[in-house]
Amino acid sequence: MNLDLNVVHTLRREGIYVCNLVVTACFPAPVDLKLLARVVGATYKPNRFAAVRYRIKHPKCTMLVFKSGKCVCIGCTKLHQAYLAINQCYKDLCVISPGVKLSAYKVQNIVTHTNVKGRIDILRMSMENGLVTNYDPELFPGLRMSLREQNARASVFFQGNIVVTGCNDFAALQRTWETVKQRVEPYLTRDRSDASPNRSDIEDASTTKPKNCTHNASCMQRQIDRLLYLEGVDAENE
């Protein structure tokens, strides 16, 4: 646990944040999902989804409970939050199955993101790294990069946003980000705002109307949110 916290603090100092954790646990007994749905006040529709899905307010996350006893926690950003949520699910299950035992927790997926404060030439990156990347702007606006050594995936966007998924260990996550930085750095152009402006830049800025980039930024944020949602859906299906 201390090692995981050290890795998280190290990544945070570099501007890398955990935005979603997928943590599982297992109860060694079948669960009556209809009864559980009534206890927690959830809607259970087995013809649409084979699990009871309900939200926990504190910590804020979503729980999935399957008939086999498998429990999935989605939406937490810290490990202790996921543990608290699963313990709350355990208490709910004890209402319908007294004496049930909880197996060990397991982290299945860690979703992290950052912004490198620059522009990334993802087209050139795709052309020069075709074996480990996939870029089709008609299907997805970002470049998908495969990291087979760590069994992880990265999505790289032109505006500098990077999302890494697939790691189930914080030590592997740190190594993955080191690899991603090495591959992205040759194609990164830093924003001019990172450097101190000279006199000509100030004069040009005073005479030029600023461009409205709010629409582009909002579109990119929606794409990133969609990617994070799809990662959660993939974890549910597993």
Break the fold down into its secondary structure elements and pairings.
Elements: H1 2-13, E1 17-26, H2 33-40, E2 51-56, E3 61-66, E4 70-76, H3 79-96, E5 106-115, E6 118-120, H4 122-128, E7 133-134, E8 143-147, E9 152-156, E10 161-167, H5 170-184, E11 188-190, H6 199-207, H7 214-237
Antiparallel strand pairs: 1-4, 1-5, 2-3, 3-4, 5-10, 6-11, 7-8, 8-9, 9-10
SSE pattern = HEHEEEHEEHEEEEHEHH
pLDDT average, as an integer? 82
From the alpha carbons, calculate the radius of gyration and give it in angstroms.
Answer: 22 Å
Strand runs, count: 11
Number of helices: 7
What is the share of helical residues? 25-40%
Fraction in beta strands: 25-35%
Spatial shape: elongated
Q: Please identify the structural class as seen in this structure.
A: alpha+beta
- The strand order across the widest sheet is 2-3-4-1-5-10-9-8-7
Taking the alpha carbons of the first and last residues, their distance comes to 25 Å
Major sheet attributes? 9 strands, antiparallel
Low-confidence stretches: 194-216
Report on the structure:
There is one protein chain. The protein has 238 residues and is of the alpha+beta class. Helix content is 39%, strand content 27%. The strands form 2 sheets. Strands 2-3-4-1-5-10-9-8-7 form a 9-stranded antiparallel sheet, with helices on both faces. A two-stranded antiparallel sheet has the order 6-11. A hairpin with a 3-residue loop joins strand 3 (61-66) and strand 4. It is elongated, with a radius of gyration of 22 Å.
